[in-house]
Design a protein that fits this description.
This protein is mostly beta strands. The protein has one domain: Kelch-type beta propeller (Neuraminidase, 6 Propeller). 2% of the residues lie in helices and 36% in strands.
Amino acid sequence: MLRPSRLLLVVLAINLPTVARSGEPNFQLDTVGSSIGPALEWKRATPSPFARVESPAAVVKGYFYVFGGFTDDLNASNRVDVFDPVTDTWNRKKDMPVGLPHLNAVVDGDQIWFAGGFKGKHPGPVTDEVWKYDFASDRWAPGPPLPEPRAGGGLAVVEHRLHYFGGYLADRDTNTGDHWSLAIEGGKGWQHEPDMPDPRGHLGAAVLEGKILTVTNFGGVDAGTPRETRTPRGSAANCRGSGAG
């Protein structure tokens, strides 16, 4: 169950000095001697301008955009802030048209896309709204709505096509496995894609080599009951060659 808390979003910047200088990172080894990636150094950065939690975020051209989120009294903020890691400063951008937590952000070209979510103060109603933010012009515009209201679903972009999958129904507890896609260029409506084999909500998503990877460990939004964590390998879906429309 969500609880009010006075949390500050604290940005921790990862410093990759070796990669930046030579392009030959100093890789660390795990306990069995396998390469796990470059050595990382964490540094505390300037905190968010206000206390927020469950805020969708995106990285664009070296800037870290943070959108809305819950305030400490569980109101849904629509404030947008962008962090510059070079100057360690925040700047405010144009507010979201509506406060929407329980959604993800994905980047395609000059636009950041959002779909679904719960509207307003917790516990808010589920929505089918879709929004796109043009970070170059600092403007918002609506996109084609989802086929049905959803919140807490995964959102990913593959080859200029949005994919929305999973999430919760209006009861805030029922997990769904629906999977829809939308062509970013000229798409007028979402089309159905193969459903998730295991319905889930509170999804995180990433794209690797044309495959959408998802992970989640949560039941209903308000139930607070952890569920089996889905590893990326177990949740991969090959989305190359999706249809147009």
